[in-house]
Amino acid sequence: MGTYNRSDLDAAIKAYDVRGVVGEGIDPDLVGDIGAAFGYIMRGEGATRAVVGYDMRESSPELAESFARGAAAQGLNVTLLGMTSTDELYYASGALECPGAMFTASHNPAKYNGIKMCRSLARPVGEETGLGKIKDLLVDGIPEYNGEAGAIDTKDVLADYAEFLHSLVDVRSGRRLKVAVDAGNGMGGLTVPAVLGEDFDIADLYFELDGNFPNHEANPLEPANLVDLQKFTVETGSDIGIAFDGDADRCFVVDELGNPVSPSAICALVASRYLQKFPGATIIHNLITSHVVPEMIAENGGTAVRTRVGHSFIKAQMAQSGAVFGGEHSAHYYFSEFFNADSGMLAAMHVLAALAEQDKPLSEFMAEYTRYEASGEINSRLGSAQEQKAKQAEIETAFAERTASSDWMDGLTIELKDSKAWFNVRASNTEPLLRLNVEAPTRAEVDALVDEVLGIIRG
């Protein structure tokens, strides 16, 4: 085992996962020790087995194998799944009822890699639920295991994953759609043919698995990375376009005209479908999603629960409230039927099923789920947490007379009087940034609010 200091570990082991530049922030030796710490913790909780998957990055196989050896040295039997999407790893953790680790840096550039870890049934491992303890073990030393080392074997669960998803959503009873898919050279290139290939006419873009991302970053949240799909959807005459991020746990949608459909609108649509299946159920949404989400939940007889941004908060609320579905503005969608985990593929299947069940084009069909204009997330770089807090307090004072309600659940959220306009200003968890999101009934109101709030933040 290596020797570690806490400040170096803090740079790599973050609030929700492990992430860093390969060869600098993380390497096989560190990853092997993290695997041993993970194995020690999980074995102490009664686990006997773990599953490990990895994405298409060049560094992923070596890192996954190093982690597996570390965990096995602590007595866990480890099943290497090979290349998987993150939600496929969550499926394996749920179906096989064992902890798991996924090697991916999601949408980050090729030089990065990382680990998303979970307990049995895809329950998240975050700072307060295991990552902090892993740091402690790396600094203080992992107790030596005197028993027999675990075995390492391999298993392919792609077909089982596809079959499980089809048991949750019927995509075969509606009209046959033509679907343009941009996999971004990420794991969607593996999972889309297996899950959707038989039931839709797939027009494929960038399906070659290539962790160097030769065409564009695998981050569809950035508008520049959707441009190719927008053009491709129109050129191929597709009914819908879908883009996946690098590890395919998020999906983004464009309509037949090439226009992006907001993740909030997708959240509202899927929520409505779940409330038809589970009348009166609870639906989770984070505080950045459009107001159309709680409105649609209420109109369909459900209970909306508002939460902070971040998968650990969403998953915790899902478990506590018994919610059947949860959605975030960043296109993470969580399903009780999928072990409370997020799945870009399952969200895409719900959208495809809903579109195929009726005859309108997607642009018309989604109109009722798109009631407001939004700014999208606008970042401003500030030097310190104190400066960020001071700017938020200045904004609160400036809007005091126009505020109908406000809260500090996650940053500052202000609802304006005599309007359905609102905005949120919150600090990034990982960078020295203040993030602004604005929503209002008209584009003119959005633009005016953006200018006013940014004038304070950047003034």
Oligomeric state of the chains in view: single chain
Here the CATH topology of the largest domain equals Alpha-D-Glucose-1,6-Bisphosphate, Chain A, domain 3
Q: What form results from the Cα inertia axes?
A: globular
CATH architecture of the largest domain: 3-Layer(aba) Sandwich
Mean pLDDT: 96
DSSP strand content = 15-25%
**Discrete helix count:** 15
Biggest sheet, in brief? 6 strands, mixed
Distance from N terminus to C terminus (CA atoms, Å) equals 50 Å
Radius of gyration: 22 Å
CATH-defined superfamily of the largest domain: Alpha-D-Glucose-1,6-Bisphosphate, subunit A, domain 3
Sheet with most strands: strand arrangement = 1-5-4-2-3-6
Structural class: alpha/beta
Whole-number total of structural domains: 4
Q: Which percent range fits the helix content?
A: 25-40%
Low-pLDDT residue intervals, each spanning 5 or more residues: none
Task: Just give the CATH class of the largest domain.
Answer: Alpha Beta
- State the total count of DSSP E strands: 22
Family: Belongs to the phosphohexose mutase family.
GO biological process, one term: carbohydrate metabolic process
Cofactor: Mg(2+)
Pfam families: PGM_PMM_I, PGM_PMM_II, PGM_PMM_III, PGM_PMM_IV
